[in-house]
Structures are given as structure tokens and as C-alpha cells.
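Give me the fold.
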Amino acid sequence: MTTFTTGTDTLTRDALAVLQPGFAGTSAPDWVRRRLAEGLASVALFGRNVTTAEQVTALTAQLRAERDDLLVAIDEESGDVTRLEVRTGSSFPGNHALGAVDDTGLTRGVARELGRRLAACGVNFNWAPSADVNANPDNPVIGVRSFGGDTALVARHTAAYVEGLQSTGVAACTKHFPGHGDTSVDSHHAIPHIDLDAGTLHERELQPFRAAIAAGTRAVMSAHIRVPVLDPDRPATLSRRILTDLLRGELGYEGLIVTDGMEMRAISGTYGLEHGVVLAIAAGADAICVGGGLCDEGTVQSLQDALVAAVRSGELPEERLADAAARVRALAEWTAGVRRSPAAAAGPDPEIGLTAARRAVTVTRAAGAAPVTGPVYVATFTPAPNIAVGDETPWGVGAELERLLPGTTTGHFTGPGAGDEAVRAAAGRRVVAVVRDEHRHPWMRTALDALIAAGPDTVVVEMGVPQSAPRGALHVATHGAARVCGVAAAEAVVAG
């Protein structure tokens, strides 16, 4: 392919246009405003940028005063991964809870209400939904972010989510292509390998992405995973075979391709941030997600310089960079000009999140179990959070049970010996034990053993993937740890 150069100004503007950087603070920094004037077309918001909906609205207004057609992106999956409600917990259950209910109308409605709230804050690009099929129960990074382990279920709910979100004018970004569900490694730390045969890949991993494309998803996010059957050498984010030949060619996708966070060690630790960004654009990515960790002007400058230098050296064809920038601008144009659908104009449904969380709860009662009628001791067993979820967002049932059952108290425990510590702290009181992915944490399983041995009337609330067999006098599975899931779980405990 011939490389041509049309001038520094155009080249620099295109290099800036493909970046989706984050920044620090709850108001627009001067450097971001300046870069918007120079060609930056997108910014990304993270939990550090959010205090209230009103503050976010003011922030996005500041940014759009510099560039009206700006893409403002956010990682708002709801459920366990929330940025808009990072300090309180989400008003909406996540994908796994919606998959457990298996009502595509409900999923569409939840995504529509989420989109309405994002749009009201000035956010027009959401890095959601996750279309990963949760084929590996030991997956440390997807779990409740997936609609489930059944391909057809994941496909229909992915499509419903895309339709609901985009009916509000907020672009959906279906992730993590070509499917991050069958991994046991977190790509925030290293490159996961998915050793699937071609048949399984097409029949299981790719079907939800086909459904999302058919539903009109405006963006697809690549995964930092290596899939040898597709490309034995490079992870999907850097693979032309996967992004251009498969996603664009075979699946016929024409929208924006955005990378997962490029600071993640799967890329930055192996290829280097700047070189990884050049390789991603060359492979077929159109937009570079960066800013979850690195959120300064120097990062933007170094990536801009790397892209410009790659074009000038011939490593990156300028027409590829120009095409990527054009796709970013086209998405910005769509979000600015999209007409509201009748569904989006129907008005808010503020209770739909709690309704969905209640419907997702599964209760298993042991024979002869006594109801919970008085104050209890809530023992919350806290695993190490993955980076996607973070550790800022509160979760559990303690606060709500303290409200419903005055005199209830809560303790938090983790690691070996957590069960014995909780038994001592409970001091003979009835215990509600709260776990998250018990099946992935042997210490958590041992802790439950200790509590149930000490008190057979122990209630267990599982707020992760309910892979372990139900046990305890009462077992409540919420299929996620959103704030509304905790409310629904507490109600179920009291209802007994």
C-alpha cells in the first residue's frame, strides 16, 4: 500500500482524532480543551471524573463548549462495573442478572433507561455491552459481566442491549472481540490465550458479535487476547487477521473498532504503549482507548508523536490513519444528529433497575429453616477486585439489612482464616454470609464451611456467579453485586 503525506496539520489532527484519552479531575483541564481545538475528537470519563450526575453534566458541557461534536465515552456496564455511580453502586443490575431473568424486553428497557441517564449527562458513547460467553467459570475478569454461558442467550440479550442503548442516541460498543469468556487470565495483567478450534470459535464466541452487528452496534471493542486459530502471533487488538479480515471482511462490520485499554499489561508490557498503538491502528483499529491509568497530556503527546512518526517512516500507511479518523468523526456525527426513537421518547422508568434485580434473585431454602426475624451479623467475604471493577464501589447487603433489621452489624473478612475470624466476631449471633464467586476462592469456601459448622442457620448470599451448589439455611443468588442487587437480596433474606 502506498504511503502519502498531505501535511503536518492534517496528519496531526488525524493522529489526535483516533485517541480516546482520559484525564484527571472533575472539570475540564486546560490541556484537554487545547487538544480539542487541535483535533482531539473523543475523551473518556472514569470514576475519578465523577462525583454526581449534575457535575458530569457540567463537565461535558465544558468540553462541548470547545467542540460540539465531541465523543464522550464511559465504561458504564452497570452492575459490578459502574463509573456514573462509582461511589454508591449501580442502580441497574449487570448482564448476568439480566441473563438470569432472560427477558429481552427487560434487558432492552434497562439499557434504554441507562442510555437516557447517560445522554442526560452529556455522555454519548458507552463501552458496553460485554458480549462474552462465560464459557470458563474460573474466568477472573468477565464473570457476572457476561449474560451467561449459553451462546444463544448471550446473543439475544446483546442485541437487545444494543437496541435499547442506541435508541437514546448513545452509541453502544460491543466487547471484547472476538470473545473473552473462555480465559483464566486477566488481560489487565498478561496476554490470555484462547485455544479453541475454528468451529467452536465461530459457533460460540462469534455469535453474540454477529447478533450485535445485525442489531446495528455502532462500535466494537477488541480484546487483548491471543487466539492461535485466528492468529498465532499477535493478540486480537494488534491482529490484522482478526480486526480487518475477520471482523470487517467475514462478519461485514462497518462501524468503529476501538481497542480495550492500551495501558493494560497484555499490550504495554509486551509491545510498549507507543508501538502497540501504532500496531493497533495498522491492524484495523480506529480508536485508541487510553486513560484508565495514564491520564496526562504527556501520554497524548507521545501517542500522537508515535502515530505521526510511523506514517512518516512508512510503518503506518497514512490512508489507514485517515480512514480511522474518519470513522471516529462519523460516529461523532451520528451521535450529534441521531433522532430519538419513540421508545426513547417514552420517558424515564426509574424503577426498572430494582425491578430487574428483584426478578434476578434465586432463593433456595433448606427444609425447616427458620425465618430471619431479628438482627443478624453480616459477614462479608471480600475477594481481591479485578481492575475492571475496581475497589471504590461499595457492595454487599449489610447497609440494607441494617436498615431492615435494626441492630444488625457488619464485618468484612478476606483470606485464610477469614471464617474463624467471622465466627468469633459473630459471637453467637445468626450470620448472613456474603460471598462473591465462592467457586473461584478456596479460602472463601473454607470460611463458609466454618460458619455453617458453627451455625447451621447461617444464611448465604452469593453476589457473583452462582457456580457452587447452594448451601446454608437460606441461599440467595443475586447474579451480581450492583447496589440494587444488594437491596433485592436483603429483601429476600427478610422475606425468608
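The first strand starts at residue 19 and ends at 21.
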